[in-house]
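Hi, can you check this record?
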Amino acid sequence: MSSIKENLENITKTIPENVTLVAVSKTKPNEDILEAYKAGHRVFGENKVQEMVEKHEALPKDISWHLIGHLQKNKVKYMASFVDLIHGVDSLKTLVEIDKQAKKHDRIINCLLQVKIAKEETKFGLTINEVKEILESETFRNLSNISIKGLMGMATFTEDTSVIKEEFSVLKSYFDSLKEENENFEILSMGMSGDYQIAMEAGSSMVRVGSAIFGKRNYN
């Protein structure tokens, strides 16, 4: 069985310099994260706020923590002091809360708006019209402690690569059109262990890879 270090090196070889690799460490013990850290990796993604807070407290402070899971508004306060990027924001109310908590720590929190591109009902996300409504709203314009850096999306969980390609290309077209009017737009987060190659071909600038680095997830 290959080590985390070897997995990381093999994956890094396939990722161009302009694409950021987020090592998805959810459910993984600190020892595994430290192995990746010692191999030179610094960007890690968690999907539960409490787990991310515990890891942040225990691990080196130069780690860049990304929240990649669905975010409940009442959890924002626990990570507002350190989170680097929140991937899955899907409501204006959540943005207002992030802004409020960021103010308390005198920092600007970077966020991505999650767009629903998958056919599955279980995926969270905004429609492109809802994204535009948020960005054009007066409420949003009055938020001074958040920065919307781009979009995030998850493709349908399917073996049919044509479906995945189509969904990623739709998200890329949304990103390109919004980028023209939003100067902060620089991140398109799409692609996970099973489809990150397709995502990069479609124009992703950030991929979220877990099991291909750390092995199968631990379901406790």
